[in-house]
Amino acid sequence: MTKDTGDGPPAKKAKAKEGGKKPKASARPYERPRGGEARSIADLVPEIGRTAFRKFGFIQSSVVSRWREIVGDRLADVTQPAMIRFPAGQKAGGTLHLTISGAHAPMLQHVAPDIIGAVNRFFGYAAIATVRMTHGQVTPAAPVQPPAMLKPVPAELGDSLRDIGDPELRTVLERMAAGLATAPKLPRIS
Question: Which pTM value belongs to this model?
Answer without folding.
Answer: 0.48
